[in-house]
Amino acid sequence: MSNESITYLVQPGGSLRGSVRVAGDKSISHRAMMLGALAEGITEVTGFLEGADSLATLAAFRAMGVNIEGPNDGRVRIHGVGLRGLKQAHGDLDLGNSGTSMRLMSGLLAGQAFDSRLIGDNSLSRRPMQRVTDPLAKMGARIDASGSGTAPLRVHGGQKLRAIDYAMPMASAQVKSCLLLAGLYAEGRTCVTEPAVTRDHTERMLQAFGYPIERQGGTVCVTGGAQLTATRIDVPADISSAAFFMVGASIAEDAEVVLTHVGVNPTRTGVIDILKLMGADIRLENERVAGGEPVADIRVCAAPLHGIDIPLALVPLAIDEFPAIFVAAACAKGRTVLRGADELRVKESDRIQVMADGLKALGIVAEPTRDGMIIEGGKLGRGLIDSHGDHRIAMAFTMAALRASGPIEILDCANVATSFPDFVTLAEGAGLKMRASEG
What we know:
- The chain has 439 residues and is an alpha+beta fold.
- The protein contains 12 helices and 23 strands.
- The strands form 6 sheets. Strands 21-22-1-23 form a 4-stranded mixed beta sheet.
- The protein starts with 5 loop residues before the first strand and ends with a strand.
- The model has no long low-confidence stretch (mean pLDDT 96).
């Protein structure tokens, strides 16, 4: 199918049963590609997510002279060029819809000897970039953005970067990772302190590539000038993608699903904790470590859910999963309240407003607030949903049909390919009654 315009039509009923291996973790796939390219030697990656976002990162490094074999069934061989081995691309680096690629690569490219220009699609070109360009400027980087602080970004090479101590004003793994990557090129010790715990894939992967890092409490530090050594990375299944099936299996009648080989990094398991607080029946089985990341099989059975006040400490640990959690809240008995999630307003869409509009279209009382939402659980009806090109909105409302009284039609679903290219096939195989059509 072309990515012009894809619509999902999901019939009510259906259930979820069986074993499902969801797409590889997007965050880890990005970082494996970036560090593998900058390492000495050949890095072998298995489980690489062949979605549009991580393929945009791969294409950018190919454009900068890195020899990459694959991807072939999730396998990639990256012939690393070392920290100083990248070459100037002929033309712009187009990062599509991927905010992770643009923010992390801003830091990485700030330390190169050559200029780069980073562009993205309409959605990415509206997302705020000053959160990385401002602290990078403190390190001596020169990056030109649009008048509103968004892409396209021109990164000027040949700047001497200096280490900084940076206390982040907001909890953001992308900002933290951007500054750590810039720190690899800076003179001295770069330290980043976060106000709340965020995903730590960058720190874990730097260690996997043999780069010394220091962690103390909420602060992580790197000293510039060391080297990355090629390694093997086994990318686990993405908990953000698994979250849709967790919610689906929780709300569908007589459902039982086992999600296999899912990454359960403690900085990413907020969705499990929140759903359990709502009464979900979720069990971790076969817990193990793969490529430095904790992994488990997740068994989810149907269970009656109830509304909760979502604890503030769990919000940064589930920031990408809230579209799915909002659907769980709509099917729960009573009221669910989310606060402290203003970051949701600057994702691929304004996820607070778009989810509230969609839930209202299905007959649910959903009141958006500045930094969250208040949802009264109720009966889901039929309806037409505009996903605004946001992959997570589209997948969340697909699962809502499991409890709807009539069909749900979801517009503008092409970007599901950015994070979960096999979503429709896996959802149908597990028991959802859906079809995707162009136009």
